[in-house]
Write a structure and sequence with these properties.
alpha+beta; Glucose Permease (Domain IIA); 2 helices; 11 strands
Length: 165
């Protein structure tokens, strides 16, 4: 691979990693915000992205999210309305991944997909199937799920239970 291609690839991975840190307001058709929350509002309502049991919990260090058990092909749904800002497998340890921006405050990440059903810039709705559970980049079938608030990984469980918004 030429040096210029390596530089482009490195830049793409760096930008993707930055998406896990930075949040912006997703814009729908005509400039509308797809989130149910007001554009500048931090509050959002989240649903569980997969129906399986939680097999690994957030600890803020080794695990920046939760892992949800399942069978290959099980549906993975968008936790809230938003815009897909990343689809790929360039981030080591995440396998096939989707990142969705929900508003200026929140984004969510869905890792280890067997099949991704959305593409970058797609507007997704809460509960919409966006991927199928798989084992890409890991040793077993599972969904690794993260919520980032202002770029920082937070424990998704209080958000999924409705305790936090």
């Amino acid at each position: 691979m030429h040096a210029s291609h390596l530089l482009i690839r490195f830049s793409f991975v760096a930008v993707t990693a930055a998406l896990l840190v930075a949040c912006g307001t997703p814009q729908g058709p005509g400039g509308s915000t797809p989130s149910r929350a007001n554009p500048g509002q931090a509050a959002a309502t989240f649903v569980r992205p997969a129906s399986g049991a939680t097999i690994a919990r957030f600890d803020g260090n080794r695990n920046k999210g939760i892992d949800i058990a399942g069978t290959a092909g099980d549906p993975v749904v968008a936790t809230a309305d938003g815009r897909v800002v990343y689809v790929g497998n360039e981030l080591r340890g995440y396998g096939n991944m989707v990142i969705v921006k929900h508003n200026e405050t929140f984004l969510s990440a869905y890792a280890h997909a067997q099949k991704v059903l959305v593409k970058e810039k797609d507007v997704v709705r809460q509960g919409q199937k966006i991927a199928e559970m798989g084992s890409s980049g890991t040793d077993r079938v599972k969904l690794h799920f993260e919520i980032r608030k202002q770029g920082t990984a937070v424990n998704p469980e209080p958000y999924l239970s409705g305790q936090l918004r």
